[in-house]
Amino acid sequence: MRHCLNGCTGLIPDDGSHTGQVGCRGGPAHSPQACPTCQGEDRILFRVDSKQMNLLAVLEVRTDGNESWGGLLRFRKGRRWSLIFGLIIMTLVMASYMLSGARQELLIPSPFHYGGFPSNPGLTDTENPGDTKEHAHQPSVSNVSYVKDYPSIKLIIDSITARIEFTPRQLPDLEDLRKQEGHMFSVIPSKFLPNSKSPCWYEEFSGRNTTDPYLTNSYVLYSKRFRSTFDALRKAFWGHLSHADGKHFRLRCLPHFYIIGQPKCGTTDLYDRLRLHPEVKFSAIKEPHWWTRKRFGIVRLRDGLRDRYPVEDYLDLFDLAAHQIHQGLQASAAQERNKMNDIIVGEASASTMWDNNAWTFFYDNSTAGEPPFLTQDFIHAFQPNAKLIVMLRDPVERLYSDYLYFASSNKSADDFHEKVTEALQLFENCMLDYSLRACVYNNTLNNAMPPSRPCLPWAVVFPRPWFAVCWAPAPRLLCYLSSLPCPGTREVRLQVGLYAVYLLDWLTVFSKDQFLILRLEDHASNVKYTMHKVFRFLNLGPLSEKQEALLTKSPASNVRRPEDRSLGPMWPVTHKILQDFYGPFNARLARVLADEAFAWKTP
Questions:
Q1: What percent of the chain has pLDDT over 90?
Q2: How many angstroms separate the CA atoms of 584 and 428, rounded?
Q3: What CATH architecture does domain 174-416+439-444+488-598 belong to?
Q4: Residue limits of the Sulfotransferase domain (predicted)?
């Protein structure tokens, strides 16, 4: 089997079809025309036991039945030598890493290099924006170097800004949506119970009293954390069925409202406080990510596609709320048949507003690189009256918080800066050829950016029934080029902070009065005011003094970890670069919402 890597220097085997040589860009290389095996592309190939193999590819070993780890020693001779060679390479690269220090690049330089941009912090950054304070700092030598390079980065931002154009999107027909998600349309009805605030309906259950209704639920199968929750639902399931004419019926519900975004903007804190209200019931899992990921079989993009989670698995998450609504409906049936049930169901996946990464895998009828269907198209098809809550924060601070939260190693203000400059370059390259919407929804931009710091040599992945070793700490050469990103590395997600683009697309299908747009900065400074605003938006009843005190005085949820706080804020020059980048998008958002606070202008 031949493994080829594009865009790299290549070692070509001496087998008659090539002369033994090293081909490099800008140096001596074999001619593409004279190289039928590579077909004009650079490859990394070598021969073991008369077979071509990828020189530095990820090694994969088949495990059979109940073989022990000792089975690894029974490799064929060629594979054993490949393993030894890989260990030698790994050792050499590790040595270079330790000798050169964390601030030095490894053997392979970054393909996006703008020079160093380190600087000392000028702001004390915390998860709570209300605690932000200025303090003096002494400029370093590297800070001077970064400031000198700022004009070149500003040219990239100016190039992006000049190409910003907010164009209306073409909405898909309902029939097109049905063709894409036929099963979903066959399960969810077009009309719901009139005496329930939440969109609910009764569905026939054909199983027996010994049937496990959650036996095949993908959320249970793929996550041990949720099994105890489903165990409780399983025990109470039969007692919450409705029986008529010898048939059994279960109540199914969809959310009445969605907290749709954005990540690292306080959605967890809002969720934790809101679920304390007795009339609010959330899904069994805080963030199911079903509309954006699980219904496509995506858990993490780097893990590839799994089996798609059917809509029934998603509906199972609301069974606890459905049980309580069912009890209320049964109780009111004997008294006031038309009495409205006050319980409302909510869902809080922070990916709902922005994450449409899966479209490139499933939708092939795009227009100019833009997704033909977005998440909101499907939600609106079933729930045109859904209520939507959005929590936002200064996108500059959101990006740094996102980076600190998701990156697991080698985090620093310097590393963050380098990732920002690389991401800006990728975004500009996209904008040169495609529309703003195409680039914002282009997941390949994030996947294309290599990690700018080496990961530690522990990256072992065990997808069944194979295991593969990701040779680190040279992720650019060994993981990135082989399309297997090293664990512990994370790009910066510039696009998530382009709130105006996402909101304008949502406003093409939902009306403005169906949205409640909040700022984390306001929530942090006055929790009580924010929560009362949410209660009014959802038409919730008043709370007792004790409930009010518990809801408003609880400590903030999901705050920045102490080890991340110790890293300090981003460099001032990074902050300035991101302000320049997000500025035009914030200005448009402020105009759409008629509120200058959403421009996040700093004095």
A1: 46
A2: 15
A3: 3-Layer(aba) Sandwich (3.40)
A4: 255-551
